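Lab notes, practical 5.
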Amino acid sequence: MNSVRRRNEIIMDVRRSGSVSVDELMLAYGVSVETIRRDLRILDEKGIVRRTYGGAVKREQTTWDMPYYDRMQLNLERKEAIAREAVLLLEDGDSVFVDGNTTGLVLSRLIPADKNLTIVTNSAMVALNLVQKKGKLSVYMVGGEVGEDGMTFGYKLHCELRQYRFDKALFSCMGFGTQGIYYSKWEPLQIAQMMVEQSNHLILMADSSKANRSGFLFGMELDRIQTLVTDEGTPHDMRESLRETVRNLIVTSSDDQSER
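Output from the prediction step:
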């Protein structure tokens, strides 16, 4: 296992249990104490965990979000499974908004070139993935100031987005629970809230690392969302509660038997 994947799994271990020890990580991954200590030091320096004597604990900061390129590698297999299910919700003739979150980027790689879709995005990387397919897709990118993650933001973006109406909008969040969805930054929150008014069908793509996780900003109640696509790592009791609120819950499974 390479170091990036190991550190991503350590992050998930910390989020699930609240803490980890060097000894149990050495046993789980079959690496030296120096390797684990280096992993924990790197994660601590990035603000993801807090190192302690003999291990690390969860660092909860509602205003903090992991850097984009680190998030891109986190839970990649689960994001791919979620994206595959989300693609099945797209129909020929749909007008679609895809936001620039990491799951949206994965989704853009999986959308078939022969699908007759009109897609609008605020991400240069999503747009590039789509136009390179050279198929039936019509791709539009909304303008604005460009951030280091390749996404546009600001007043110009909001003005342009208000001109569109979509059949479906696919987006993500920092965290979700039975009360609703959460964000750490204003920009993705404002885009999601805008889509409530401008899209007929909201599709939230959120892997289980975001389950029962809150953020600094409350986005919206779950009953505003038509479809939530998550994975089997989302706790079973939480799934039962979500079914009472979300109109359509899709839970991806590692054995390709998704739960609907």
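Observations recorded by the TA: The chain has ten helices and 15 strands. Residues 3-17 form the longest helix (15 residues).
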